[in-house]
Amino acid sequence: MTSGYDIVIVGAGHGGAQAAIALRQQKFEGSIAIIGEEPELPYERPPLSKEYLAKEKSFERILIRPADFWRDRAVTMRLGERVVAVDPQAHELQCADGQSVRYGTLIWAAGGHPRRMPGVGPLAGLHHVRTRADVDQLEAELGATDRIVVIGGGYIGLEAAAVLTKFGKSITVLEAQDRVLARVAGEPLSRFFEAEHRRHGVDVRLGVSIERIEARDGRVTGVRLASGEMLAAEMIIVGIGIVPAVEPLLAAGAAGGNGVTVDAQCRTSLPDIFAIGDCAAHANGFADGAVMRVESVQNATDQAALVAKTIMGQALSYDAVPWFWSNQYDIKLQTVGLSVGHDETVVRGDPATGHFSVVYLKQGRVVALDCVNMTKDYVQGRALITLRIALDPEALARSDIPLMELAAAAAP
Ligand code: FAD
Questions:
Q1: How far is residue 267 from each of residues 114, 128, 281, measured CA to CA in Å?
Q2: For the chain, is the Cβ count within 10 Å smaller at the N or the C terminus?
């Protein structure tokens, strides 16, 4: 059976939901359908490793909008459907169940799927944290779990570890690099989080090579390290990044590789097809134009808004300031800018107090800040990054001087 819509959005996540919301806000009156492979209405993903995992928020409280919002705005939700092929010439999609869907404009907002441990198939006790279903499955097994190994010291692994220690579980975090958060943050922040996790009883192991996942009768029994050591565990959580969900677009001839390549309006190389969010490789002005995928709610939301405005005829280019957050224990980390390619870091304040910021500089200019329980620095640092201001590192280290004051003194 074939159906058709003026705009089809693939992916009912942050970017997909926000694109539909923004289109209706922009007074787009044509038909809109969102096709999503998860069975749920769009929900916020960050709480999956935070409040939802901690059982502090119900699923209803993390919905991006309630069901009647979508009905009232005539957004057709086609949930539990997976798109497997795109025919850009015919402007038609194929779903896994054999249905075809025609589109006028396609917005690809399919995010990514968790990267799996190479050569390891599904096993009881082996989990990822990407979807509500992942977390529900994990929680269903927690009662029979004492020991958990988390593979990967990135934000998701660390956040999950922080929540699960509260449940009294014994947690080991295994990180292949010589520090946690190595891909996204500077050394002072990594060392701070390592110390915090150890203080809460987490066994953080760095520079670790994994030999294999051990299992018996289809259930994990632990992780064997290259050193020969066996870490027994009833549960293993793998947090080693995502693989962007772009196969149907690449198979249809879209430019890309690690994600699908988009221009400053989030257009792919295929006609009438945009891509946004985790799967969209774009030239980011806050990283001197380096082509990258940015995995954050901010990026998905801002790219969605940009595409809606572009469809409605506005001439804009993507230049939203990147920001991100992470909550672990009582630590509120707020990040602004992109630290990629920085050549200097300055620490403002004393990490031992639990209140400090790491400022990243590139050729003297402030390019990013990681603010730990320092909302003031986060808010004021945003202006430094937007204005691409050069500041003296010694002055920056003076946490008693507000960043705005430094910026005002440096302004031409
Ligand atoms: P998603 O929200 O992942 O949505 C994509 C949707 O498309 C999914 O539902 C997927 O199933 C669906 N899909 C994929 N392929 C197909 C297909 N072929 N057909 C149909 N549907 C398909 N960001 C922050 O800024 N701060 C945080 O604190 C933070 N914490 C996070 C914690 C966790 C546990 C996770 C998983 C992510 C977190 N993120 C955080 C990242 C943030 O959630 C993502 O950057 C954001 O969800 C990206 O939005 P998106 O629309 O690109 O993709």
A1: 25, 31, 11
A2: C
For a substitution probing ligand 1, which of 9, 38, 45, 331 has the most ligand atoms within 8 Å of its CB? Answer: 45
The pLDDT value given to residue 393: 92
Torsion angle, CA of 186/187/192/195, rounded to 10 degrees? 140
Taking the CA of residue 49 as reference, the ligand 1 atom at the shortest distance is 34
**pLDDT at site 383:** 87
Do 237 and 147 form a contact (C-beta atoms < 8 A)? no
Closest CA to 152 of 132, 125, 171: 171
pLDDT of residue 409: 80
DSSP symbols for 7-41: EEEE--SHHHHHHHHHHHHTT--S-EEEEESSSSP
Question: Is residue 194 within 6 Å of ligand 1 at its C-beta?
Answer: no
CA 296 / ligand 1 centre spacing (Å): 8
Q: Which pTM was predicted?
A: 0.97
Number of H helices, E strands in the chain: 10, 26
pLDDT at 76: 98
Question: Are 336 and 368 contacting, i.e. CB atoms less than 8 angstroms apart?
Answer: yes
Report the distance separating Cα 130 and Cα 162, nearest Å.
17
Nearest-atom number in ligand 1 for the CA of 17 is 51
What does the block give as tokens for 141?
């097994």
Q: Taking a C-beta distance cutoff of 8 angstroms, is the pair 406, 369 a contact?
A: no
Does residue 277 have its Cβ closer than 6 Å to ligand 1? yes
Ligand 1 centroid, distance to 112 Cα (angstroms): 7
- What is the 109 CA–ligand 1 centroid distance (Å)? 9
403 lines ligand 1 (CB under 6 A): no
| CB contact at 8 A, 180 and 173 | yes
In the sheet with 256-257, reading across from the earlier edge strand, the strands are 256-257, 259-261, 280-284, 290-292
Q: In which residue ranges of the chain is pLDDT below 70? A: 411-412
Specify the ligand 1 atom closest to the Cα of 16. Answer: 51
